[in-house]
Amino acid sequence: MGQSYNPSAMLGCENTTALMKHIWHNRQQPSHTVLASMRQLPQYNTLKQNTFSAAAAGIIDRELSNMIADAKAFNDPPYEVFNAAEKQAEPQMRVGYKRLDGMTTNLHYGESIFVQNMLCTRSRHHQLIVFAGYKTAFAWLCEAEKRTVSSDIAESLLRFQIPCGRFSYASIPKRHFNCVLGVTGTLSCLTANERKLIRVSPLLITSNAPRHM
I need a labelling partner for 39 at 20 to 30 A (CA). Which of 53, 91, 146, 194 fits? Predict the structure, then answer.
């Protein structure tokens, strides 16, 4: 019910960097061709043998497939390159996403329709980098090739994003709080199915209160 918290582990090393660069340079080829060629690379076999257990080796192919898809559509949602330090003498060019009437690199979960599953990671180069899947990393790589952004930052973002679970925000309070109070302005117009969902949730008592505008 509702949105979920989707934590991920970030795995970055010279092998992941090489694999993601291979995907980027071959993104115009069919997906199955790119994946087949990657299985022949020594970096692929090193990750499979030394980083993941045999039971978890399928994670590599799953994430590589996600990378290939994101590399083909790295500008959807559209990104822009902007100076994050306009008031400083030295420009700091960043890849960001438009939000309201400005640009931002620190959109959080659920703040925009296209960033529902974004991941955040901190690096020594940049305070907060936001990922839309792997698209943001490839956007940085694209701009680094044009020399519009730092190649050091771009390479620091070439990492596997390994999902570690999915937790319903609506269910989290059940484990940590004895009482949950909710306020909504649409309670009186809920459908029958929506009312059933509320009865399953921790909300046991509901009431309507008049409002004054």
Answer: 146
